[in-house]
Design goal:
- The complex is a heterodimer of chains A (493) and B (112).
- Chain A contains 21 helices and two strands.
- Chain A is mostly helical and 493 residues long.
- A two-stranded antiparallel ribbon of chain A has the order 1-2.
- Chain B has 112 residues and is mostly helical.
- Chain B has one domain: Helix Hairpins, CATH 1.10.287.
- Chain B is 64% helix and 0% strand.
- Classes of the chains: A mainly alpha (493), B mainly alpha (112).
- The interface between A and B is large, with 39 and 34 residues.
Chain lengths: 493, 112
């Protein structure tokens, strides 16, 4: 049974390699890629249920017992994220079928999406920090190709910057790993946690922790997000949505793992630093969202605000705050994917990217307009949609823990998010339309279907929060009490 | 021996930083390649340089050298090789379409 933990990594890689040989059979490529991602979603769901009954599951590759071998670990937190990531990828694929165009499809678009999701799944599942680096690189290499695919002038320019920034970030990851290995002589995450607890977190280890913080912040877009708006606005819409939903979230996941499991002892330095960075991130993201004139920039800065808000949950560091952060993380993945898909479709429909030049979209596309309204309300945190519960839980814990500045920044950002998105809604959807009935482009059926499914997900996550509560609570309990994780990996001490 | 290698790592990082801060794309890419070599040496050094015999039970009675850093470096070399190859191709295409390899001329917003 434990063997299926590795499938979310293996299946996409194997099918991606197969698809390389089916380059010109586009219909088959579409079917196989969608079936693959759907199958991984089902496996992730089964694993999530298994984890509830059996506790944390692990697989030691080739029988090398921890801390010596590499292992994959399935706990509620990672399985929730694998499940969400794969469902979103499936929906983005459906959107891509009708919009990405034959040129991309023949240039191995689907294999690279599968490599990307393999890297994402691997990052969520691995229990070895060097393996985390490798999975990051698998994901990043696929993302480099997806950013550059298309070969437009500005696209190549931005993708070169994106690649170089990530190469330097990966280098810093290796430096941090080298120092970690030099001081602790282990790479297994649970074993690192034990050794840190034994040795006490001395200044050297805190420095290593801060190095990891910088690396993962670069990936997550926490404070070091200068690369994000540029590179997230150049690829095709489906790829943008995938990036917005998955890539920064992997960085956030890594931050949660590192600072709830491994480096917990010196929280007055590391967690305070995370809190300060999260606060500044939200403020800067709000400024960007307010000053942006084109829809893509506004959407990209909304990603940054979301990252900051989730990490307030990590900075507060109580079990309830983790639960809120997990709720908000899942919500943010779904809502940001939908936001980017809608924004990309708006650009496609109007041929404009400046908000002011769009108008009256809701007259021609009423359902499309109302779905935008739903995602806007969800991102602002209006009940009963998905963003509400996460905001409430994080807010409550911020009050109890006395994090009033973060509380004010976090909830102030909700208003800015609402304002920035409402501005698009009023300018681009309301008013008289300048596109006549004959000139209007139809929204492809597949694209419309993906919007509807994602909007239903948002409503279901809000109304059915009770349903996912046991999984989220279990995930938060494991994060709050690292002993559960350590015991599951290394056995009872 | 370790101190010597660490100094070498420092020199490599300095060289790489100088290269990365230059304007020409190809120099920046060379800089990232040098940078990755520096960190490979660093991993080797922090693992301890040849503290014992080959880590094979039948060949020696110990003490053994830690073999893990070499495995890590091997993985990291493969990855950095792939990334460097990709960046070189990307830079070549970028030069072809944008007509310049000077980063200071590659600014501007994405909405042109």
């Amino acid at each position: 049974m434990n063997n299926i933990i590795v499938l979310p990594l293996i299946i996409p890689i194997v099918t991606a390699i197969l698809l390389v040989f089916l380059r010109h059979n586009i219909r088959l490529q579409r079917i196989v890629s969608l079936v693959t991602v759907a199958a991984v979603s089902i496996i992730a769901f089964i694993l999530l249920l298994e984890v509830q009954t059996n506790g944390i599951m692990k697989i030691d590759f080739s029988g090398w017992l921890p801390p010596f071998g590499i292992l994959f670990v399935a706990d509620s937190f990672s399985m929730l994220l694998v499940l969400t990531a794969n469902i979103i990828t499936a929906i983005c694929l459906i959107y891509a079928f009708s919009t990405i165009g034959g040129r991309h499809e023949r240039m191995f678009f689907y294999p690279f999406v599968l490599f990307l999701i393999a890297g994402v799944n691997g990052s969520f599942l691995t229990g070895d920090i060097f393996n985390l680096f490798v999975c990051f690189e698998v994901m990043l290499l696929a993302s480099y190709v997806l950013v550059a695919l298309g070969g437009e002038k500005f696209q190549l320019r931005e993708s070169l910057k994106y690649v170089l920034i990530n190469v330097v970030a990966s280098w810093m990851f290796l430096v941090a790993l080298a120092y970690l290995y030099g001081t602790l002589k282990t790479l297994n995450m649970a074993h690192i946690a034990v050794r840190v607890a034994e040795a006490g977190q001395d200044p050297v280890l805190t420095t290593v922790a801060i190095l990891f913080l910088i690396v993962f912040s670069l990936k997550a877009g926490l404070l070091l997000f200068f690369w994000l708006p540029g590179s997230y606005s150049v690829p095709p819409t489906a790829v943008q949505a995938l990036f917005a939903a998955l890539l920064t979230k992997v960085g956030i996941y890594a931050l949660f793992r590192t600072f709830t499991l491994m480096f917990t002892l010196n929280a007055s330095i590391t967690h305070m630093l995370i809190g300060v960075m999260a606060g500044i991130t939200i403020v800067l993201g709000c400024l960007g969202a307010l000053s942006g004139r084109d829809v893509r920039t506004i959407a990209a800065y909304n990603v940054i605000i979301g990252v900051g808000f989730i990490l307030i949950g990590l900075a507060i560091g109580t079990e309830q705050a983790f639960a809120g952060a997990i709720y908000y993380l899942i919500h943010d993945m779904v809502a940001k994917a939908l936001l980017f898909l809608i924004v990309g479709t708006m650009v496609y429909l109007t041929g404009e990217i400046i908000v002011k030049n769009m108008n009256g979209l809701i007259r021609h596309y009423p359902l499309f307009g109302w779905i935008y309204f739903i995602v806007m309300c969800a991102l602002a945190g209006i009940p009963p949609l998905s963003g509400f519960l996460g905001k409430v839980l994080i807010g409550q814990q911020a009050v109890e823990g006395g994090f009033y500045v973060l509380l004010a920044i976090g909830f102030g950002s909700s208003i800015i998010v609402l304002y920035s998105l409402l501005r698009i809604f009023l300018a681009a959807f309301f008013g008289e339309t300048s596109i006549s009935e004959e000139d209007k482009k139809p929204i492809p059926k597949g694209a419309m279907a993906s919007f509807v499914v994602l909007a239903l997900c948002i409503i279901a996550l809000g109304l059915g929060a009770e349903g996912i509560a046991p999984y989220v609570e279990d995930a938060a309990r494991t994060l709050a009490d690292p002993a559960i994780y350590i015991e599951a990996i290394l056995g009872a001490k | 021996m370790e101190s010597l290698i660490v100094i070498l790592v420092g020199i490599l990082v300095a060289v790489a930083t100088y290269l990365i801060l230059s304007r020409t794309v190809i120099r920046v890419i060379l800089g990232t390649a040098v940078l990755s070599h520096a960190v490979h040496l660093l991993i080797l050094t922090v693992g301890g340089l040849k503290k014992g015999d080959v880590p094979l039970l039948s060949q020696s009675d110990g003490p053994y050298t830690d073999a893990l850093p070499q495995a890590l470096i091997l993985t990291a070399i493969v990855i950095s090789f792939a990334v460097t190859a990709f960046v070189l191709v990307l830079a070549y295409r970028m030069y072809g379409t944008n007509g310049t390899d000077d980063f200071s001329k590659l600014g501007g917003s994405s909405d042109e």
